[in-house]
Amino acid sequence: MSVAKRSPLLSWTVIAPVVGILVLALTWGRDSGAVLVTIAAVALMATVLAAVHHAEVVAHRVGEPYGSLVLAVAVTVIEVALIVTVMASGGHDAETLARDTVFAAVMITTNGIVGIALLVGALKYGTVLFNSEGSGAALATVATLATLGLVLPSFTTSEAGPEYSTSQLVFAALASIVLYGLFVFTQTVRHRDFFLPITESGVVTEETHADPPSGKTALLSLGMLMVALVGVVGLAKVESPAIKAGVDAAGFPASSVGVAIALLVLLPESIAAIRAASRDRMQTSINLGYGSAMASIGLTIPAIAIASFFMDGPLLLGLGSTQIVLLGLTLVVSVLTVVPGRATRLQGGVHLVLLAAYLFLAINP
């Protein structure tokens, strides 16, 4: 007796984003109590997991390295929308929220996503392999973007605080877009082979993996990914007052809000990177980690720069001395990690200790 095949429209990955939109409609603009906040939080987590699934389906259809770009850009859209909405609501930390969130994203991606992927892969396979040319190019772009967007504002003299003047901000925004565009062209067109997973025998070809989903399935996932992103952005906005209230109640500094936002929006890529590492596709994990850091700076800073012209108050982008030291150490360690083209659990542990140091100092400066 044959069993009827269940319609893909009844899958939880389709239902979750729809439920998320319904919960968003019920909670938007209302003074939500503890019950509604809890329901919104559960819906948010389910929608995030659904977004991961649909992004992976689309990524499998288009193949690497395009798939990593899909997820990186999708997460950056969430990040920009959340930063802008929270900044627009005002507050004593609104002028530093963009800086705190972008820096948190950089530290979480370069140390957290890359670190845990290295550890997971090395624990399972002993030594993980990746293309040092592509990984090094990505890391160099991240270092340049981070310096232009987050370090130099602390040393310029046109403005009194750690901020750019209008002309400097425009230059930094344009330079960020140009650098990100050049990297995307290099990754997807000119030197695509630098960013493909490799083994001892060379580049892994798409034929060694499962057949990609059909065009119809990929289009369904693309549409549901868009729905899920809307749900995540909206529900995150609903949850942001609870996040800020929790941070204040715990006595943490205001910068912890940016850390919480970054942890939330980077959950999809973290899950995808861990899955890739567990399948011995470390290059995909590195593409996700560094690609997310790159998109977070290269796309978020220009978007926030544009938004700042329509908002009151300064836009403080410059990092403090402790943050600059942590960023510098992260970049040095990252260079030593990617240059050999192979890594063990030691490198993963070093990056995770750096992440732990950042998180600890973020709540206990």
TrEMBL record:
Keyword Transmembrane helix (UniProt): yes
Keywords carried by this UniProt record: Membrane, Transmembrane, Transmembrane helix
Annotated GO CC locations: plasma membrane
One of the record's GO molecular function terms: sodium:proton antiporter activity
Localization of this protein: Membrane
Ranges annotated as spanning the membrane: 9-28, 34-54, 66-90, 102-123, 135-155, 167-185, 218-238, 250-267, 288-310, 316-339, 346-363
Keyword presence, Transmembrane helix: yes
Membrane topology: Multi-pass membrane protein
Principal location class: membrane
Domain Sodium/calcium exchanger membrane region: 34-188, 221-363
PANTHER family in the record: SODIUM-POTASSIUM/PROTON ANTIPORTER CHAA, SODIUM-POTASSIUM_PROTON ANTIPORTER CHAA
Record-given protein name: Ca2+:H+ antiporter
